[in-house]
């Protein structure tokens, strides 16, 4: 007699509830939970204590380093003040002309710039070609050699200063160390008013006339990405120029941010707006940026571009990072925790009073807590060993039970796997194979339901595909017919029927006496000679190219249609008389200046007019046609406007 299929519930009751598995596992689970909970509690307390100590330590170190950086920047600012006073003295006494390095050789460069040709141990000199070089300019270029010993001593004495410069109102630049390619680097024209290191020191930005620091910018003199301490140089109330000391980002990192902090802490510097001024390679990896140390100067720079927004920590593409950084930045607090992606960091900031910048230190919490984590892992491994011992101890006891469970699981899992595979292929295959009985009532019932569903789904899918294919064919055919009905087949602009519909609609809507629209008729001049000389294929190509030129010059709301032969109609909504005449003239010039394939040049005549409320289409078209006729009669390649 065939044995009736067993129920899944009956199998579970017979094989699991008869055993002592659940009570024994419950006892072991309670013991292990107690062990690991106590381990976690102790580890958490140790982490909190260690983290607090590290934060206090790093905060102290950061405070000391911030003071050190502030002192170094203060020294640079003081040197800037020294430069400022020396140069104001120079401009106050133009009659004094000392040449400590001998007379300089000043020449005209082929690009028109006035420059210092030889390195005599002093600074380079450049005058833009746009500046008229008279006796006063030659005197200033020559006698400003008196400043070179001071320039040189500042660069030689201060390790973070890379160059010293003076930029004057009349586009003169004196820079030390000497630049052999100054004339090529600065080019023919050089408007100092466009330079960040010039206008940031003018009366509007620096009314107190003190040395100030710039944000990071690309140095036009070729030093790459720099920050500058700048000061205005006045003669009375006249701004003669701006002097400054440059510190490259690379040297700033090497001399200021090369701090050997514990726990792999990573220092970086930001300005008052949140833009990263300098960062070492480890911070680059965290922020996903690369410090801008160099730049390829392919051509002269006329302005001073700053760092992109990607280098502003308050404008990060990561919203979690930018929000947390903004709150911390605005709070003025010294210490905070920050999450970047899935990593938690301790963040410390200390202001640099000299510039308003901030020295920030970032340290990975995981690096701080590594010793505690290692101890916790050790105790966890001890717990895992205890679990292993318990498993071995109970292995003999559970052996018979495991054999029974395995046999039961195979009986249950095999048909479930088959059902799972069938459901996975249901949407991809049209030839679903029926599932076979497994000998378990619930699973067999589910298999029968699945087989019936698969058959019905195959039938409905086939019907749906047929309906969708037919609908897509109808829609494609309708689009093609609509396009053919409204479009000129050669030029692919509106045909005469469609442009007349648009013109009629505009006339019907023209009820306000103050509102109007424009109509332009365009006719290609001597088009018959194009066909006669080059053939009709060349003439067709001219028509196609002409429509491309017209469409490129028209507004989005303007409508272009082929009125007939080589004549085109343009409907321009919401336009006045001046606008319709300017539009027609722009179209005429675009055609006249274009080089057509095979034909070469071609011209067109235009007639333009404005619609009047209440007038008929024939009257409006006739007026535009009369204007077109007048343009042709007056010599072609013209625009004529009709009242």
UniProtKB/TrEMBL annotation:
Its cofactor is Mg(2+). This is diguanylate cyclase. GO terms for biological process: signal transduction. InterPro entries: Diguanylate_Cyclase, GGDEF_dom, HAMP_dom, Nucleotide_cyclase, Rev_trsase/Diguanyl_cyclase. Gene3D superfamilies: 3.30.70.270, 6.10.340.10, PAS domain. Residues 410-462 form the HAMP domain. One of its GO terms (cellular component) is membrane. The chain crosses the membrane at residues 21-42, 382-403. The keyword Membrane applies. It catalyses: 2 GTP = 3',3'-c-di-GMP + 2 diphosphate. GO terms for molecular function: diguanylate cyclase activity. Residues 515-643 form the GGDEF domain. It holds the Pfam family GGDEF. It is an enzyme of class 2 (transferase). Keywords: Membrane, Transmembrane, Transmembrane helix. Its EC number is 2.7.7.65. SUPFAM superfamilies: Nucleotide cyclase (SSF55073).
